[in-house]
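Researcher: Please predict.
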Amino acid sequence: MSYSEKTRGLYQSVIQGMKDAGLLKQERYIHSPQAAEIEVEFPSGSALKKVINMCANNYLGLSSHPEVVKAAHAGLDSRGYGMSSVRFICGTQDIHRELEQVTTKFLGTEDTILFPSCMDANAGVFEAILTKDDVMISDRLVHASLIDGIRLCSAMQDTFKHSDMAHLEQKLEMHQDRRLRLVITDGVFSMDGDTAKMDEMVALCEKYDAMLLVDDSHSSGFIGKTGRGTHEKYGVVGKIDVITTTFGKALGGATGGCVSGRKELVEMCRQKARPYLFSNTIAPVVVEGILKVFEILNASTERRDKLERNAAYWRKGLQEAGFVLKEGDTPIVPVMLFNAKLAQDFSRALYEDGVYAVGFFFPVVPQSQARIRTQLSAGHEIHHLDKALDAFVKAGKKFEILGKTRQEIIDRFGM
């Protein structure tokens, strides 16, 4: 037997250590469609509980939109369930090409290629477009999927301090001897909710002959006046060389991602990106749903506008209650607790009061930066937000953190 009792005991001790430290992640089972209010089984075997969902990426409330569901049903009937092939053999339908064209127009780029997820897009793009003679310079807080993609590429790796443009300029000057320079950033940073300084980054890239890649997964559909993303917010549409993004958040919330940008770079991905070459693409039923999502977004900014109002209302309520928040103006509003166990206990207290919001801690965020990351949706109504605020204030009083500074919370609970 290769899996010995000694080996089993080793893993059991590691898992027990996570439990003892209050760091073990546990899944909650949702028994209803994704929405502002959901029915949850937690812990496993418990009676179902109706709670307000404050932690989904369902920014535009389209995950269970009846028109999207209807389009997906129609797609299932007309296009079947799966493709049973990678795209370049016999796994591409005309609707995959249509979705790439629609995405290109929406993002204001030159061309687009679909991937099974944005994680796959980020895993494949760097090795497809760069060589060992090039350099990748990334913000130090980029998403884990970008970090993993960077690790798979033979180009030199370097970083700059988070959103520090002076430091980025130093790095660009330093690497002028490289064949190509690629600057890498998130559009909206998923754990902090702040946005990259896209206009300044574009100016630096133009000055130092560098390309710019942005992962806009937490932006596409709702950031910017018409929801195109951070490049629209900062007035640099058409100036980003590569945008990677997901259809698994605001754009319907199912699966799928893409690389969108300069047509030569997209073609390089089509020829060389391994997740594209060696895995099936997005299922037809999902493609039809995403196409309906774009139709809804192109018809009106109503959902994007409501999301913006909800986010401002929520942030103001938390600030007035005396919580420590990360600065930002996006629908991601992190409530800082700093201590991992406090974040877990706070999350459980919220759940008892009918609010679903998960605690985040190392390694998802840096050590001593534990938090409850709240996320707003256009599916929230004001009565949802008022009830959730009441629960946050009640928990804040229970743990005596309202009006306290970062240091005062750390002094009481540790880091």
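Model: The chain has a mean pLDDT of 96.
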